[in-house]
Recover the amino acids of this structure.
C-alpha cells in the first residue's frame, strides 16, 4: 500500500509539473501602423499595454505583435499563414483596412482579403476579433459607409467578435491625435486599449 501511495504521489507530481509547464495562450495581433505604435514609444502603444494588462488580469496569456506600418489587407493576408503556423494563436486580432481605404482601393478585394484571413484563422482553431476603422470625411459618405459595412457584414457572416471603430472616443479629440490626424498620441493609447478590451475579453474565456 505504501509503495502504491508513493507511486500516486510521483505520478501526480509529474502531471502537475506538466500542467505548470504548459505553453501560454497567444493573442496574435495583425495590424498596420495603428497597432505598431507609429511615432510613439513601443511601450506606449495599445498592443504593448495589452500585454501588460493580460499579465495582470489573465495569467497564462501572452501577446505577439505582428503589425507593420503600411500593411494592407493583401499583404496581411499573404503573411498570415506563416504566422498562424509559427505562433498557433488562440485569438487573432485583425486590424487592417485603413491603408486600403486611405489609398482609395476598391472595397471588394478588401472584403475578400479580410474574409480569407478570418477563414484561415478559424481553420487553425483561433477565435477572431475584427477591429474596424473609419476614414476622414473627405472620402465621401458612399466609400466611408461601404468600408464600415465590410466589418459589420463579416463579423455577422463569419461569427467573429467586432469592435466597430478602433479609435472610438479618440479620433475626434485633437489633443489625443498626432498632427497627421490619423494616429493617436501616447496619451490616447490607453483609451484605444479599453475599446479593444471590450471585444477581446470575452474571447479569453
Amino acid at each position: 500500500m505504501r509503495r502504491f501511495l508513493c507511486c500516486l504521489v510521483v505520478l501526480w507530481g509529474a502531471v502537475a509539473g506538466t500542467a505548470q509547464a504548459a505553453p501560454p495562450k497567444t493573442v496574435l495581433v495583425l495590424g498596420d501602423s495603428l497597432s505598431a505604435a507609429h511615432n510613439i514609444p513601443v511601450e506606449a502603444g495599445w498592443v504593448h499595454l495589452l500585454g501588460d494588462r493580460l499579465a495582470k488580469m489573465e495569467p497564462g496569456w501572452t501577446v505577439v505583435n505582428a503589425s507593420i506600418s503600411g500593411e494592407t489587407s493583401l499583404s496581411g493576408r499573404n503573411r498570415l499563414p506563416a504566422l498562424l503556423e509559427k505562433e498557433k494563436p488562440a485569438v487573432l486580432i485583425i486590424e487592417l483596412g485603413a491603408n486600403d481605404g486611405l489609398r482609395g482601393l476598391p472595397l471588394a478585394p478588401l472584403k475578400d482579403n479580410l474574409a480569407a484571413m478570418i477563414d484561415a484563422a478559424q481553420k487553425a482553431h483561433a477565435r477572431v476579433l475584427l477591429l474596424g476603422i473609419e476614414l476622414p470625411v473627405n472620402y465621401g459618405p458612399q466609400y466611408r459607409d461601404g468600408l464600415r459595412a465590410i466589418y459589420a457584414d463579416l463579423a455577422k457572416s463569419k461569427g467573429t467578435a467586432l469592435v466597430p471603430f478602433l479609435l472610438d472616443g479618440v479620433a475626434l479629440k485633437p489633443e489625443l491625435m498626432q498632427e497627421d490626424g490619423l494616429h493617436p498620441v501616447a496619451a490616447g493609447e490607453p483609451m484605444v486599449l479599453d475599446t479593444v478590451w471590450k471585444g477581446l475579453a470575452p474571447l479569453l474565456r
Notes: The CA atoms of residues 29 and 205 lie 18 Å apart. The first strand starts at residue 25 and ends at 31. Residues 4-19 have pLDDT under 50 and may be disordered. Residues 2-20 form the longest helix (19 residues).
